[in-house]
Design a protein that fits this description.
- This protein is α+β, with helices and mostly antiparallel strands.
- The protein contains 9 helices and 13 strands.
- Strands 1, 2, 3, 4, 5 and 6 form a 6-stranded mixed beta sheet that branches. Strands 8-10-11-13-12 form a 5-stranded mixed beta sheet, with helices on one face.
């Protein structure tokens, strides 16, 4: 695209007023302004990498550049490939590559950075607070007996809330990893029986306090599985947690395998889900009307992570649910995952 007259004289000022990032070339001279992207928290050397990529394109296509109006430049950032769209404008003997999708860039980096910042900045003070509370609880026997019970209850509540916040932050860290495509799925070999014993021990106090009938069925008593142990523990724990939030008094966890797949199924007799809820239940920050009415805590990231982890194992999730009857969620993990030479990562 060629520009003449007053448009030529004013193009740089016009672009800078609009805060549109551009790279200009005149012969072998290159010009750009980093300040035009100063409102975005960018990785180190990001702009320089972009300039070099655009420069390589310009030099490689110099003989036919007049016939090119747009170009897409691909660049890797946070282990994820993104496309930057530039329109090309000629002014006299100068070429301008003007970034078109800068709003997309702002959104991508805001989302990644806000999650990283929120997660990591809150993690350290929470760890300190939790440590002091644990120390004070252990020191209680040396305190005066007056109001000791009230102090203990107060500290216990503070500690429980700290654990809850720590869990939310850990989930946000995992969300940020999936968004930045930096999740590594390990191939651990572990016993399903030991996994379920660990999960049962975790939920036992809550099971007793709520009076749930909690059962675990494992085919043939036990079998080994190859998958990411911590992530599989997370998804089963999250499904059980949801069943306890919305269930009535029964939860059954079934673990079995066939020639091609491993299966984990969590079944409850709770309030169930409508088709509309099922269609959206794995969306990030999804909060249903049931959660709001029952004052259930959480950000709505647990089931999002469940879906991402299952996808990262090349698995599937099947949901069967009837309102006021209960819900069955089945996780299918293919055995061929363990034979793959590559690590799967979230998308």
């Amino acid at each position: 695209m060629n520009l003449n007259g007053n448009q030529e004289a004013n193009i740089e000022q016009f672009l800078e007023v609009l805060r549109k990032f551009y790279i200009s070339f005149k012969g072998n001279q290159v010009y750009y302004q980093e300040s035009l992207l100063s409102d975005i928290v960018l990785p180190k050397n990001f702009i320089l990498d972009v300039v070099n990529k655009v420069k390589d394109f310009y030099l490689s296509n110099r003989n036919r550049i007049e016939n090119i109006d747009k170009v897409s430049i691909k660049i890797n950032v946070y282990q994820k490939e993104i496309s930057l769209e530039f329109t090309i404008i000629k002014k006299s003997d100068k070429y301008y590559f003007i970034l078109l999708n800068d709003n997309y860039l702002r959104y991508e980096f805001f989302r990644t950075n806000i999650l990283n910042t929120l997660s990591h900045e809150l993690k350290t003070p929470l760890t300190i607070i939790k440590g002091y509370i644990q120390y004070m609880i252990k020191s209680l026997p040396t305190f005066e007996k007056d109001n000791l019970k009230n102090l203990f209850n107060l500290l216990s509540t503070m500690l429980n809330e700290t654990y809850r916040l720590e869990e939310i932050i850990s989930e946000l860290i995992e969300v940020s990893k999936f968004y930045s495509n930096s999740v590594i799925i390990k191939r651990d070999i572990f016993s399903v029986l030991k996994l379920m014993q660990m999960i049962k021990n975790k939920f036992e106090p809550k099971i007793k306090s709520k009076g749930f009938n909690f059962e675990i069925e494992i085919e043939n008593g036990d079998f080994d599985i190859i998958a990411d142990f911590e992530k599989i523990k997370y998804i089963i724990s999250e499904l059980i947690e949801n069943s306890m939030k919305y269930g009535k008094n029964k939860i059954l966890v079934r673990c079995y395998e066939d020639l091609n797949n491993y299966y984990f199924e969590v079944i409850d007799n709770g309030i169930g889900m409508s088709k509309e809820v099922i269609d959206n239940v794995f969306n990030l920050f999804m909060r249903t009307e049931n959660e709001l009415n029952r004052k259930v805590y959480g950000l709505g990231v647990g089931l999002f992570l469940v879906k991402k982890i299952v996808d990262a194992h090349n698995g599937k999730i099947e949901i069967k649910s009837k309102v006021n009857k209960g819900t069955s969620i089945k996780i299918l993990l293919p055995k061929h995952f363990s034979k793959s030479e590559s690590l799967f990562s979230g998308s």
